[in-house]
Amino acid sequence: MKTLTEKDYDEAAKILGCKKSVIKAVADIESAGSGFLEDGKPVILFEGHVFYRNTAGKFYKSHPNICFPKWDRSKYETGPTKEIRGQKEWLDFFEAAKLDEPAAIQSCSWGKFQILGENYSVCGFDSPLEFAQSMFRSEGEQLKAFINFVKFNHYDVFLKKLDFTSFAKMYNGPGYAKNKYDEKIKAAYLKYEKEGG
């Protein structure tokens, strides 16, 4: 089964030493609660500036729509639904994968917890392809990658303390405050706590 269960969240919370409401909150904010699109492909966000970094910019002139030196909001789909946005991201990925598949995989944020493919090794995988294949299998696999990533980087300390600001800064990057990422996670956490975890 692809979808996470309460048991999955309970086990993850034990491993990370935090409340399961925190893990649910991160998933909510990262992927609107689902690790997959309706067609069965995992949710991804293709990052053209990361693809630029992973390919030393060699496709910048020929493919400036998917390979550019700095983060650019205008490059992202702003369609009305998750499905429309999701399909645009996959089209960008497929275009990039034709040029350099390992770099394309590493240049996407994947699944329910939107982990950047560059982190495949710290998530417990031997190659970008192995990481991507795992992201296709289930939300359970996506959760395992999240656990490994968080523990490797010691972000579990912030989750235990409910330090949403520090977690947001490290997990989401320097733009977290502008996006109110920490506030969104806290609000989602409080919602789940009110519902009983």
Molecular structure report:
With 197 residues, the chain is mostly helical. 54% of the residues lie in helices and 4% in strands. It has 10 helices and 3 strands. Strands 1-2-3 form a 3-stranded antiparallel beta sheet. A hairpin with a 4-residue loop joins β2 and β3. α1 crosses α2 (20-31), α2 (20-31) packs across α10 (181-194) and α6 crosses α7 (139-152). The radius of gyration is 16 Å and the shape is globular. The relative contact order is 0.16. The model has no long low-confidence stretch (mean pLDDT 93).
Q: Outline the biggest β-sheet.
A: 3 strands, antiparallel
Q: Class by helix and strand content? A: mainly alpha
Kindly estimate the percentage of residues that lie in beta strands according to DSSP: under 5%
Helix content: 40-55%
Which spans have pLDDT < 50 for at least 5 consecutive residues?
none
Beta strands, count: 3
Q: In which order are the strands of the major sheet placed?
A: 1-2-3
Q: What is the helix tally?
A: 10
